[in-house]
Design goal:
By secondary structure, the chain is an alpha/beta fold. It has one domain (4-24, 40-297): Metal-dependent hydrolases (TIM Barrel). Helix content is 37%, strand content 12%. The chain has helices at 18-24, 47-50, 68-78, 94-100, 116-130, 139-142, 152-161, 185-193, 209-218, 242-248, 262-265, 269-277, 283-297; strands at 4-10, 81-87, 105-106, 108-109, 134-137, 165-168, 199-202, 222-225, 256-257. The chain starts with a strand and ends with a helix.
């Protein structure tokens, strides 16, 4: 059975802090003490217009009785998913998750870049004492692009600790902030200034796929994951993924990792894995996408 490492596994709703999503999806920038109500359908609410609305209870991992992390691990075992990057967990849950499920999850912690050295010290503590596996940044939520110098102390600490960074890299549909906060161009500065830092471009940079491909060729320690994109579209003509699939099967076959994002698609791990295996990729490349590249990236 094909081994898999999943670069985006959603935290079961029963074990997640619901306030995290509410806060993250609020206004970008500095909070105001007396905000007015926002226009209907504005900001993250626009996602419901752009994408077909899905009943959250239909999505595995988000049902009223979702079985928590215990059931998630059972589902992973059934699909032969060795481990995965768990998104949606609080920084404070890092140690507990590793203690309950040793070796099954990567936990990447996240910080406000305006917290300066306090964030750097807490990042180091979480890595050394709680087993955090890396750093996760998302300009989508805070409106601060990845090349902003306020992140640089955190990048320096990640390089010193020899842990990777996952950076949100894709267009967003929250229409209260710039659409290109996650443009791949911001990664170039980071990779130039921190050449030893292992970086994964989360969400693969769509629709700027050609630029993403160029940067992957340019920087040895830059990788990419396919999270939040259904595999059936990668081989669909006119989807914009043509160059990604071409180079991902050839010159960049060692740079691509899968993020199954099961919580988005309302289907099983097994179905998504089979969809990846049906892509027009060489057999050895499919194994790399599903497991080998992530094993190398995470130094398993």
């Amino acid at each position: 059975m094909t081994r898999v490492i999943d670069m985006e596994i959603g935290m079961p709703a029963s074990e997640a802090n619901p306030n995290l999503e509410r806060i993250a999806r609020g206004r970008p920038g500095t909070p105001f003490p007396q905000p007015l109500e926002r226009p209907e359908g504005y900001g993250f609410a626009n996602y419901g217009k752009v994408f077909k609305a899905r009943n959250r209870d239909e999505v595995p991992g988000h049902k009223g009785d979702d079985g928590g992390l215990d059931r998630l691990v059972e589902d992973m075992d059934r699909a032969n998913i060795a481990c995965g990057l768990l998104v949606g967990a609080e920084n404070s849950a890092t140690g507990k998750i590793h203690a309950r499920y040793p070796g099954r999850f990567f936990t990447f912690v996240t910080f406000d870049p305006t917290d300066g050295m306090r964030a750097v010290r807490e990042f180091e503590r979480l890595v050394k004492e709680e087993g955090a596996n890396g750093l996760r940044l998302s300009a989508l939520y805070n409106g601060v692009p990845a090349n902003d110098r306020r992140y640089y102390p955190l990048y320096a600490k990640a390089a010193e600790l020899d842990v990777p960074v996952r950076i949100y890299t894709a267009m967003n549909y929250a229409n209260d902030r710039p659409y290109d906060l996650g443009h791949p161009r911001y990664l170039d500065d980071v990779a130039v200034d921190f050449p030893e830092l292992r970086i994964v471009a989360g969400l693969a940079g769509w629709p700027w796929v050609n630029e993403m491909v160029g940067l992957l060729r340019r920087h040895p320690n830059l990788y990419v994951d396919t999270a939040a994109h259904h595999p059936r579209y990668f081989a669909q003509p006119g989807s914009g993924w043509e160059q990604f699939l071409q180079f991902g099967n050839t010159l960049l076959q060692d740079k691509v990792m899968v993020g199954l994002s099961r919580y988005l698609f309302g289907t099983s791990f097994e179905t998504l894995i089979e969809d990846y295996k049906n892509l027009p990729l060489k057999d050895k490349v499919i194994e790399k996408w599903l497991y080998g590249n992530a094993a190398t990236f995470h130094r398993l």
